[in-house]
UniProtKB/TrEMBL annotation:
Gene: leuB
Pathway: Amino-acid biosynthesis; L-leucine biosynthesis; L-leucine from 3-methyl-2-oxobutanoate: step 3/4
Organism expressing this protein natively: Altererythrobacter epoxidivorans
Protein's UniProt keywords contain Phosphoprotein: no
First-listed, main subcellular location of the protein, grouped into a coarse class: cytoplasm
Annotated protein name in UniProt: 3-isopropylmalate dehydrogenase
Length: 356
């Protein structure tokens, strides 16, 4: 049983370190943990944001724990050398097309949400984001128009097979929840979205127990703030899912709380192969200052234990420890408190020991 650990850049290093303390505490028999470089760190040391050795490590593992990539000093590199290509490259190369991003209220945190407390305490939504297609992976470029202006362009498209497979993931996920699925698109304007909607409707015939509805993404952004409790499971494309999940994080209280799982079809001896990461980035504004909230990464580790290693009890132990530490009032700066990254790590470790 092998986990590849790819901390990456900025706070990716700090939050991954704290999550690994929880993994060590669990003392999983036969577990091998191997570190690899990604992002700006890998570019500086090995000349590429996703070196072949890292990709090989990822492929030979049962699961990947990923921190974050991104560094402002790399923002003017050629696109294929930028840190973000590491995570995009891993998602594509490993066929990780289904991104699960749960956003669930934590008791006691209602007042840290951007929403009114009575609205915030109800939120329990799973965003199922397609992760291998859309405008993120289409052809792109810049060109000079006939009138002499520069023009940037990015191709948005979805093949019906891509929509169909994420639809199945989302319907099955909804069946484990409240059997309600909202497909979010922009079908009033985009052909890509019209096909998305048509395929969602076709696939829904196979899931008569799941209630499917459709919402335009602009309305969904508004409804997520107005009445998040009306959502159960959301399925959406790569771009819209990226944006809506950051928004959902602030409905819960902080982007430092939201974990994610990126799954494909590959099964291992222990579960579904996947990559797990907080939904946030490398946060250059607070990197290296011991200020980042490591809880999103800890909760991503819990998802890894559940989906890739079949360790449900260990996953729940981490989730319970994080929730109880928050309820105890241990909070980082993102939640109006003063606990440092390592102090939050200490508190969760202590809690884990007490609830073993
Ligand atoms: N999967 C990945 O590796 C991702 C990488 N990025 C990259 O990260 C870099 C920074 O991007 P931003 O747009 O600033 O997004 P970001 O998510 O890194 O940060 C946005 C804001 O949230 C705060 N924040 C994020 N995570 C936090 C945590 N755990 N605790 C406390 N505060 C936290 C940051 O301090 C910042 O003010 C860019 O290079 C971007 O491309 C962004 C998103 C995802
Ligand atoms: C940095 C990216 C490639 C994407 C992103 O923001 C995300 O996956 O949350
Ligand atoms: Mg994002």
């Amino acid at each position: 049983m092998k986990i590849a650990v790819l901390p990456g850049d900025g706070i990716g290093q700090e939050v991954t370190r704290e999550a690994l303390r929880l993994l060590e505490l669990l003392e999983l028999p036969g577990l091998e943990v191997e570190h690899g470089e990604v992002g700006a760190t890998a570019y500086r040391n090995q000349g590429h944001p996703l070196p072949e050795a890292t990709l090989e490590l990822a492929r030979s593992s049962d699961a990947i724990l990923f921190g974050a990539v991104g560094d402002p000093s790399c923002d003017n590199l050629e696109r294929h050398l930028r840190p973000e290509q590491a995570i995009l490259g891993l998602r594509a190369a490993l066929g990780l097309f289904a991104n699960l991003r749960p956003a669930t209220a934590f008791p006691g945190l209602e007042h840290m949400s951007g929403l009114k407390p009575e609205i915030a305490r109800e939120i329990d939504v799973l965003i199922v984001r397609e992760l291998n297609g859309d405008v993120y992976f289409g052809d792109k470029g810049t060109r000079v128009r006939e009138d002499g202006q520069r023009e940037g362009w990015d191709m948005m498209s979805y093949a019906e097979s891509e929509v169909r497979r994420i639809a199945h993931t989302a319907f099955r996920a909804a069946q484990t929840r409240k059997n309600r699925l909202t497909s979010v698109d922009k079908a009033n304007v985009l052909e890509t979205s019209q096909l998305w909607r048509d395929v969602m409707i076709e696939v829904s015939a196979e899931y008569p127990d799941v209630e499917l509805d459709h919402m335009y993404v602009d309305n969904a952004a508004m409804q997520l703030v107005k009445a998040p409790a009306n959502f159960d499971t959301i399925v959406t494309g790569n771009l819209f899912g990226d944006i809506l999940s950051d928004q959902a994080s602030m409905c819960v209280g902080s982007i430092g709380l939201l974990p994610s799982a990126a799954l494909g079809e590959r099964q291992t001896d222990y579960g579904t192969f996947g990559l797990y990461e907080p939904i946030h980035g490398s946060a250059p504004d607070i990197a290296g200052k011991n200020l980042a909230n490591p809880m999103a990464t800890m909760l991503s580790l819990a998802m890894l234990l559940r989906h890739s290693l079949g360790r449900e009890a260990d996953a729940e132990r981490i989730e319970r420890a994080v929730a109880e530490v928050l309820a105890d009032g241990v909070r980082g700066g993102d939640l109006g408190g003063s606990a440092t990254t390592t102090e939050i790590g200490d508190a969760v470790v202590t809690k884990m020991v007490s609830i073993s």
